[in-house]
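PT: before anyone asks, these are the final sequences, not the draft ones from last week. 1235 residues across everything. Please model them as a single complex and drop the result in this thread when it's through.
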Amino acid sequence: MTAEGRPGPAAEGADNSSAILKLAIMAVGGQGGGVLSNWVADLAELGGHDAQVTYVAGVAQRTGATIYYVEMAPKSGNGAVFALSPTPGDVDVLIASELMEAGRAVQRGFVTPDRTTLIASSHRILAVSEKQVPGDGRGDGEEVREALSAGAKELLCFDMDRLARESGSVISSSLFGGLARSGALPFPVELYEEVVRASGRGAEASLRAFRAALNHKEEDSPPAPRKTEIRARGPRRLLAAWAGLEARLEALPEEARTMARAGLRKVVDYQDPAYGAEYLDRVERALLADDPSKGHVLTIAAAKHVANAMCYDDIIRVADLKTRSGRDARLRREQQIPPGGVVRVTEYFHPRAEELISILPAWIGRRVDGGGVAGKVLGRLAGGGRRLRSDRLGGFLTLWLLGGLRPVRRRLTRHAVEAAHVERLMDTALTAAGTDYELGVEVFECQRLIKGYSDTHARGLSKFDAVLSGLDLVKARGDASDWLRRLRQAALRDEDGAALKGALETIKSFADED
Amino acid sequence: MAERSFKKEVEHLRMPAGGTFSGEGILAITKALLENGVGYVGGYQGSPISHLMDVLSDAQELLEELGVHFESSASEAAAAAMLAASVHYPIRGAVTFKSTVGTNVASDALANLASGGVKGGALVIVGEDYGEGSSIMQERSHAFAMKSQIWLLDPRPNLPSIVKAVGDGFRLSETSNTPVMLQLRIRSCHLRGSFTAGENLRPAMTVRDALENPTRDVERIVLPPSSYLHEREKVAKRLPAAREFIAGEGLNEFFGNDAGKVGIVAQGGMYNGVVRALQRLGLAETDGRTDIPLYVMNVTYPLVEDEVLAFTAGKEAVLIVEEGHPDYIEQGIRAILHKAGRTVPVEGKGEGRFPEAGELTGEAMRDAVSGFMRDHAAELLPAVGRAPNSPPVLRDDRLEGNVPPRPPGFCVGCPERPIFAATKLVQRELGEHHIAGDIGCHLFSINAPFNIGATTMGYGLGPASNSAFNAKGAEKRSIAFIGDGGFWHNGLASSIGNAVYNDNDGVIVIVDNYYSSATGGQDLPSSRVEKSNRNTGNPIKKAVEGVGAKWVRQIDRTYDVGRMRDTLREALTTKETGPKIIVASSECMLNRRRREKPAEAKAVAEGRRIQRTRFGVDEDVCTGDHACIRLSGCPSLSLKKLDDPLRDDPVAAIDSDCVGCGNCGEVADAAVLCPSFYQADLVRNPGRAETILSRLRGLAIRFLQRRRESRLLSFDAEAAS
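LR: through. Structure below.
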């Protein structure tokens, strides 16, 4: 922590502006901060105060961070002189319409522990800088929440966005409810409601959202997603096979079982029980190389990443997933389709020649792979963007038939390539683990780099190769696993691999020195 | 159609004398113009005075009733030139635009206007886009006032003062035959407050009267020898007249105890900030009463020597509160004192007082005022006020590492997003290019995820700023973006005409979203709306062909990313010389939704068939690479973390704010990303046949699904629950 000098509020008695109540609203453009600030001013005026609202109506309307400022004071003969913008350390109430905006308010000094009541919605609107990262670039909301508690005198923080949406309204209404609930302004709740009621169109929904926030109880928050018991379903023969696999699962050490179960389920769901057996073979192989005193971290890493590697994303997988009944149900729920509602679904595909080759039998695929005339013909066949109406029989059938290739998948070109990849992952990781346990774990973790389809997949694969190319350079070092982790994190930071390249250069430079 | 409608508020503009008028600064100004018998009003939108144009536009009916002419000028230059109506005729006129950028554009007309002088009051209302929230270069309008000799008003930021300034400005202008600039800072424009209304007045002479009875005074025309006379007249007649009026009418204000030993001189617009600093030091009451002598300059140019000398007389020290660089006022006051042989210490910008540059925030104000008082009048300060600084505030690392920057960006469904996605894609193929930006929403391409654009040289000047990059035979071409706003503002001549005439081989993309969107969705010559009092519907394509452009491509659906990319590729590689112009047209989604939403609600209520389109992501197909986000940045396309121990990275997810623009699907297709995206069209009020067909399809599909699912092992949580 570093200290920053900042003129604070003058002590009690000296500050003649303390009769003025200062309230700031930090919002994301388009959230209705203007409506809210006007409500606050209406409220103040209704409550016998003079009020002044200022804001900046520039490009901040366009989804950027923006700030509204209200000052109010009991009516007096001459009227108070109000300031036009908030001053750090001199704000009584701060309303933030999003968690990180609340954090920004604290950073800017608009929230101070000596006097500021902070009313913040705990939901997140991710910034582009967080979303665009190939890995997980999201800020840590928990840490920010802790900082809010420490930074404010009073903190009111719950998901007011959800309450608003559930009431068919927008967040300005529930934030206003949060303000009423905080009791930070000297006005009764009835006055708040009068203001909302006078707002005309949508006033009923606004009132509902207002009251939802006013009366919100922590226990009303939606429970953590329930852990449903996921059971296998299917024909008896397959269930028997599944039971056999589950028995093998039980033989695994307890720490590794959860991950292996998830992995096994994924692999079997992806292909069949035989594939699941193959998966367990690999997990067991990792277990043999594991060191029980280390909590079976290696086996867990293997269980996770081998499952992901074995379930490579191909056309068959996509077609299979998109034609399942569970997908229908999810789509209707997510798109808020009323029961019995008619919905037209268009799937966006762009198969390339490579995808067509990948579903050719391996012996043919090997020959066309080099491109040439056959590649071109297939490229023409793939024909660029395809829009498939999967709610129609024709479109659905196309996908359904493709998904039906699942039983022959292991004889197709793509599988040969992917199976080799899995073996390479296993070998590299277990070899590394033989000399450096943590390094072996890190090698498995590198599978995380491979994801996506088409070019994205190719780029992931080349990052994977690049990171592993660093392995030889560092494996003799005591801190080899740290370096490999750093390389992987660098690879996840940007799309074109600039960070990774830099990290590799660094490694090369000290490898040369050694 | 402007983003915000003031139809309801403009009714208040009819309020008779004596009523209490409550509203925003811009409404107050409009009311003040009417109360002062303005004869004509014009202007060009731009923050912070965009809404002033919207208010005027919505008040068209009332303006007509009063015989006031109003028009939305094509540019600030056109607006300023409009003031020519006050040169020979005693008609009061007002124009408005943002400053300093608008004033830059207007300065040719303003300089000519100021040279010849005016007969009717001429008011230029500038929205000073300076400080936090500003979107332009940080400069001062003050310089324009000084160079052309236009008086500059900077009233205290409360509605009664602003309203009074409008009337003062007209009278000052008429008394001194000089145009007057009324400066409003960002926050004053939207300041909500109230004032006592006066009666609306019809102009003493209307533009119609003048048109039907033309007069001319050759001495007012800027042409030698009159222009030499003008310069002398400015100094010899107009300046003294102005000073006399300002002092005589008390336009500047004095507060506090005249006998105080230290005094503060402040721009009117800084008054509230100064008072707040004094309040916090215990030196001013809540209502602003103070013993500290304040000289508040509601007129910041010209300086009134007598007032300056009188105020500083007997003072032991004076503090000057002036926002922005350079410190013209401080220089002026120092010069006055110096010429008068005064030695009173003057403090303003510099060490320990005000920052040389930048906004005078509450913090800066308190630092400087408290420092000044501590050094020169410590005995006036209560004990705590004398303490230098409060305990340090701790910086929280938990915030530093997690709170992301949040610059403005494209809205949900913005038609400009796919244009930049296509540009990013074409650069992947053909390499990075030099790309010039312009002014408008499209400039958000500068930020992530597009990171496109190297310079922005002014409104309508994007393509012109690529003029130098015209090297015949070069392996790459320049690309420039320009919006429809910039195009009609001055881009047609300065950018397109220029490129055609000079045979510039660069690529020019004209982003046509039917409105001047960044300023709030005002209409333009190429807007598709039918207006009774404006001529719209003039295609940009026709205009560029009219100035001689040969290679012109019209794209009527920017969301077609593939076509957009192919057209850009063709433009960058074709052998043809001369500018390659792509007009990329799709309606601003904010405006479109505002139009369509009520219509849709109505259709649903009436039982008419209608489709609601949204996009979705299949979470089990998405692999969490976020390549789609790097080609979108749509607020509606975000991330969610799945409850799956096998997945480390969050997957893409589309929320219910999606307007179904199609960018996600188009990008996934054009960039060959992934098959996770689907489009779901909910059919509202489907017909009987459609419902039956849908049911039959559903039955067949469910049959196939069951058939497969009964033969395989499945763990589908959805099916299991």
